[in-house]
Design goal:
5-stranded antiparallel beta sheet; 4-stranded antiparallel beta sheet; 5 helices; 7% helix; elongated
Length: 466
């Protein structure tokens, strides 16, 4: 979430949106994102700005922290989120909330220079974590095992505490007078990533504060949020410079972003969050919009705060979070509102589809087209291979046998489809007209780049895009 020494300002009007994407993967023949349906929208923190939201690991609870010094718990498991508890104790605005990996503890950081640990089951405060010099704690993150908590103590410190005792374990100091903003542990426990007000990001050794950090350069203004991929190989960041970026963490020498996505006229990308399956990013911005970005296709969905309430009733979209299963998206706004969307069309588990192997197909090529992995395809077809069938699906070199139907687990939409046989004279145009589809869609879905290679009698898969 956006963090600073004062609550974020409220923006009540949105300029014309002109997103640009640089670079972005080539388009696929079908959209990967479905427009989410709004589940609920309500004033969660009247007269205050929602600064941070977080889902519990089991997806049943949502925590929100706001500029009215309050932390609220919501039942997010049903169709209509319901208030469960309001946790009071902070003496200044709450700017970050986070659940422990086991979901038993909720941590909240505040402008009152404390982090408070709450027992989720009985809604009681367990203990306070404090900086020795009364510094504002802008952002917090649990380690993967839940034993440690890191917090950015502004202006220039990162403190790591033991959760069980509240004892300070170690400190990291920002270089050159830089101001610390977001902080996050990597899931593998190796790094603590910190964003600064000059746009730099540093990766610190999570167990040794004396080791020099690795610096990632690219943002030109304050970094507002950070999130690692589940395998710790990539890092996502958002910034006041109206971009969010993807960084290669697996390569220890990489210092430039792998990908930069620019959201022009957004004023600032407050938060960026990755869906559990890695196919989608959600971003919140000062222009009041939440956007979903497909990481596999050139598609953007803008979730505008309208539905009779109007954008002025929401203000800035400050923070956003996916539920652990990727089925729900929640956003917090500067006018105290929470909005929940059914986002199951954007994310979720891979679903199987059938693909008829064409001449020249390789397993890698099929996997890339269906946004999956060769190993996943092999695993999905292992039962057939183990059954001792006389006609194997894969050749000795591992590539599929032309003409065989493979089960392909894919995050692309599952199609109901039909087969079409190419007639004499390469009648692709007639097939496309009969099925009311562009020729390019049929070719792309069947991994055929040159229509001249079609042969009489060849089977084409015809997707039903309805």
């Amino acid at each position: 979430a956006v963090s600073s020494s004062t609550p974020v300002p409220i923006v009540t009007t949105a300029p014309t949106i002109a997103p640009t994407v640089t670079p972005y993967p080539p388009p696929s023949p079908t959209p990967a994102l479905a427009v989410p349906a709004l589940k609920a929208a309500f004033e969660a923190h009247p007269g205050a700005s929602v600064q941070s939201v977080a889902y519990s690991p089991d997806g049943k609870l949502v925590a929100s922290g706001a500029s009215n010094n309050k932390v609220s718990l919501w039942d997010g498991s049903g169709a209509n989120p319901k208030a469960i508890a309001e946790l009071s104790g902070h003496q200044n605005y709450v700017n970050s909330v986070a659940f422990s990996p086991d979901g038993k503890i909720l941590a909240s950081s505040s402008g009152d220079a404390t982090v408070r640990l709450w027992d989720v089951a009985n809604r009681k405060e367990i203990r306070q974590l404090k900086s020795s010099s009364g510094q504002v704690i802008a952002s917090i993150s649990f380690s993967a095992d839940g034993s440690l908590l890191a917090g950015t103590a502004q202006p220039n410190q990162v403190i790591v505490w033991r959760v069980d005792s509240g004892a300070e374990l170690r400190r990291y100091t920002a270089p050159g007078g830089l101001k610390v903003e977001p902080v996050t542990f990597s899931p593998d426990g190796r790094f603590i990533a910190v964003g600064y007000d000059n746009g730099d990001i540093q990766l610190w050794n999570a167990s040794d504060s004396t080791q020099p950090p690795r610096t990632l350069k690219g943002h030109s203004k304050t970094v507002w949020s950070l999130q690692f991929s589940l395998d710790s190989k990539q890092l996502y960041s958002s910034s006041l410079d109206q971009t969010f970026r993807l960084w290669d963490i697996a390569n220890p020498t990489a210092t430039d972003a792998l990908q930069t996505i620019s959201v022009q006229n957004s004023q600032s990308v407050s938060t960026v969050r990755r869906s559990a399956d890695g196919s989608t990013l959600a971003s919140s911005s000062r222009d009041g919009l939440v956007r979903l970005w497909s990481l596999t296709q050139t598609q953007i969905i803008q979730l505008e705060p309208k539905n009779g309430l109007g954008q002025a009733d929401f203000g800035e979209a400050v923070t956003v979070s996916f539920s652990p299963d990727g089925k729900t998206l929640v956003a917090g706004y500067a006018k105290g509102t929470l909005r929940f969307w059914e986002a199951s069309g954007a994310t979720g588990r891979a679903r199987p589809t059938l693909y008829v192997v064409q001449a020249g197909d390789t397993l890698d090529k099929i996997a890339q087209n269906f946004q999956t992995s060769p190993d996943a395809i092999k695993a999905a077809n292992r039962d057939a291979a183990d059954s001792g069938q006389t006609e194997p699906l894969l050749q000795p070199n591992g590539d599929p046998v032309a003409g065989k139907a493979l089960v392909v687990p894919t995050n692309r939409p599952t199609f109901r489809g039909a087969g079409a046989i190419v007639g004499p004279g390469n009648d692709l145009a007639a097939i496309a007209k009969r099925h009311n589809l562009p020729e390019a869609v049929i070719l792309s879905y069947n991994l055929i780049s040159d229509p001249a290679t079609l042969q009489t009698g060849q089977v084409l898969l015809i997707p039903n895009l309805a």
